[in-house]
C-alpha cells in the first residue's frame, strides 16, 4: 500500500502557428510563485471533475483567450520528480496547429502576458517546458512526412508556394519544388480554386485549398500519405 501519496496531474498546451514563413509557439508569462516572470507553455492542474482534454482547453482559454477544438496528446512528462518546485506533478502535454491570423491572444487568469514566439527564439522557460517543446517540434516534423497536418497551419485558401515554404521552414530542408508539387497534386487532396492571390505585384497566382472529405475517403481505401526528402 502506498501511503500519503501526493501526486498532482497537470496539462500543458503546445500551440503551433505559422506566419510569414516562420513557425511560432504560443507562450504565457507566469504571474505568481517561484517561476514568476518566466515564460511557459499554457497549462495548469486538472480539476477533479474534468477530463484531460477539457482541462487543456480550459487552461488555454483562461490564460490566452483562445479556443482550440482539436488537440493531439504528445507525451506524459514525470520522470523528473523535481520538474515542478511546488509539488510532485505529472504533466500530460497536448499539441495543436492553428492559423494565428484567426486568433486574438490576450493574457488572463494567472498569466501576466501571452504572445507568439518564433521557435528558434525561445527563451529559458519555466519547469521543463523547453524539453517539452523540443519533443513537440520533433513530433511535428515527423508527422509532416506521413500525415497532411501542414494544412492546419495555413489559411483556408493558400498559394502552393506557401505550402512548399511551410515544409522547408519546419523541416529545415530544401525541397525539389517541382517533384514536391507533382507528388502533392497526384494525391488529389488539394484542389485549385477560382480565386487568386491578392498580391498587387507580379502575375496573379491561383489559390488552393485542402479537400478534407477527399482525404477521409482515401483513408477508407487504405491511402498512405508520404513525403520524402533526400
TrEMBL record:
CDD domains: NUDIX_NadM_like. InterPro entries: Nudix_hydrolase, NUDIX_hydrolase-like_dom_sf, NUDIX_hydrolase_CS, NUDIX_hydrolase_dom, WH-like_DNA-bd_sf, WH_DNA-bd_sf, WHD_NrtR. The keyword Hydrolase applies. GO terms for molecular function: hydrolase activity. Keywords: Hydrolase. Residues 6-141 form the Nudix hydrolase domain. PROSITE patterns: NUDIX, NUDIX_BOX. Signal peptide: none annotated. It comes from the Bacteria. Belongs to the Nudix hydrolase family. PANTHER family: ADP-RIBOSE PYROPHOSPHATASE, SLR1690 PROTEIN. This is NUDIX hydrolase. It comes from Flavobacterium hydatis.
